[in-house]
Structures are given as structure tokens and as C-alpha cells.
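To close the section, here is one more complete example, presented without commentary so you can practise reading it yourself. The ligand is zinc ion.
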Amino acid sequence: MSKIRLKTITISLLLTCVTFGMACFQAYAWDGDTTHKDMAYWAGATKGVEAEYLPFLRDAGPAPDSFDQPYCQIRHAYLIDTGWPNEAPRWCQDHANDAKLHYGQGQKLDAYKELGYATHYIIDVSNLMHTTIRATDTPWWNPLRFLHDIYEVDYVKNNWNSGKNFGQYTYTYGTQRTIGIYDPYQACVDMARYANGDSSTRANYICDKIIATSDYGNDNTVVFYTKDNLVNAMAYCRGLVDYIRRP
Ligand SMILES: [Zn+2]
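Output:
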């Protein structure tokens, strides 16, 4: 093998590792300490889960980002445009049904931990970057960061408790609604489709906007889609609480 060919292979291997490594550790997760914890907690607190269990429910919210490693990219996504990776609904269903089983047997602590895990997958696919292959694109003004990270961390996480105050908005409007869940798998698919928009309307709009301008965050439609998806995720999480408790 020639030196140049070897070098090319080494470089492309290295790039592949870096890309997948970054994607696995950074991608496919709303921020655990804000979005996941808050929404799992709010779902329980507004549905009358006993105070002693709420901290466990809250801490279970982000846990799949640790225990699903190194498969987060597959398990925390439902890509509408490619059909794969698409395992979020399956894991949502698994954990929701475990929670329901524990609840039925009076094992509330385990039930609420599993419930927290189940919320993770619904909340993840409410982030439209978990529904489109375009999440791995980079904009011209910041070619070093994926759209996924820019949207999830720079935008939603950093505007959770300040700026656009996505957290407050999600709490205020999302906890007024419950979306009834009788099939957690389908609920997770529905959430992903909703977040992505008809024929990727929402996903493409936000991806295009981020690529076009670093001021994408002040675009009214970007703000609206983000809030609306989060409010729906909150309503689904409340539906999950009902689901696991329903005899
Ligand atoms: Zn995740």
C-alpha cells in the first residue's frame, strides 16, 4: 500500500471516529440538567406524584443519556427523512411498560424511575434535530458545530431559564394540557412527526434558518416551532404519567 493511500485511509478513519464520537457524546439529547430534569419533574408534580418520589423522577429524566451509551444516536432518534435511526419509540414503550408493571405491583419508586426514563425519549424527539438527518450539517458561520448542538445547546439550553425563557413557557402552557397515551410507541412516533412538521416543514425551516444566519434565534417562526414542540412534549409527558397509573 502506498504511503499516500495509507495516509488517506488514516485521515478518513480519524475523521469518522471524531465525527461519530462527537455525535454520540454530544448529539441526540436535550440538555439533561435543564430540559429533561425539569420536564420529568413538572409532569409528575402537576399530576400529583407524591413529593418523596419527585427527585427520583427528575433524576431519571436525563439518565438514558448515560445508560444508553454508546447507542444514544440510534435509541434517542426517530429520523423522519431517512427512516433510520429510529429506536426512540421502542425504548419509550419499553420503559413506560416497565413503569406500568412496577406501579401495578405497588413498587412506586421503580415505577417513577422507569417513567422518568420513558419521558426521555418523547422529549428527545420533540427536538426536531432528533428527527432529521440534517442535524449533522454545519452552517457557514460556524462550520465546527453541528446544527444539532447549535440548536440544542446554544439556543434552547441557553434560553431555558433566561432570554426566550423556554422553560417557563413550557411549564406554563404545557402543564395545562395532557395528551392521552394508550400506546407509548405510537405516542413517541406521533411526537417525532409533529416536531418534524408536515414533510419536514419545521425541521427544514429551522435548519435553513440556522444555516442562513447566526441570528436565527430571534426569528419568530423558529421561536414558535420551538415553543410549540416543547409544549406538546410536556403534554405527552403528562399523558405518560396517566398511562403508567391506568389499571
Ligand atoms: Zn437523549
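Once you have examined the C-alpha cells, check your reading against these statements. The pocket of zinc ion is lined by residues 28-29, 64-65, 72, 76, 120, 124 (CB under 6 Å). Residues 202 and 225 are 7 Å apart (CA to CA).
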